[in-house]
């Protein structure tokens, strides 16, 4: 661990909870941003099922060349 000397300055009993708590806060903020800035995510959480996409029509066969 190349940053191992940080624990000589910061007590692990304080530093680890602060680090893990900040990671949890950032994760909650990201989830809140997704909830507030998308239209599909709240519908997904409320049980809005996926709508079936319109079937894609198969491409038409190329026309046969005219005989001479």
- Mean pLDDT, all residues: 82
The SSE string, one letter per element, is: HH
How far is the N terminus from the C terminus? 80 Å
Question: Residue share in helices?
Answer: 40-55%
Which overall shape is indicated by the principal axes computed on the Cα atoms?
elongated
Largest sheet: none
Q: What is Rg?
A: 28 Å
Number of helices: 2
Summing up helix and strand content along with how strands pair, one would put the structural category as mainly alpha
Number of beta strands: 0
GO molecular function: bacteriochlorophyll binding; metal ion binding
Protein name: Light-harvesting protein B-800-850 alpha chain
Keywords: Antenna complex, Bacteriochlorophyll, Cell membrane, Chlorophyll, Chromophore, Light-harvesting polypeptide, Magnesium, Membrane, Metal-binding, Transmembrane, Transmembrane helix
InterPro entries: Antenna_a/b, Antenna_alpha, Light-harvesting_complex
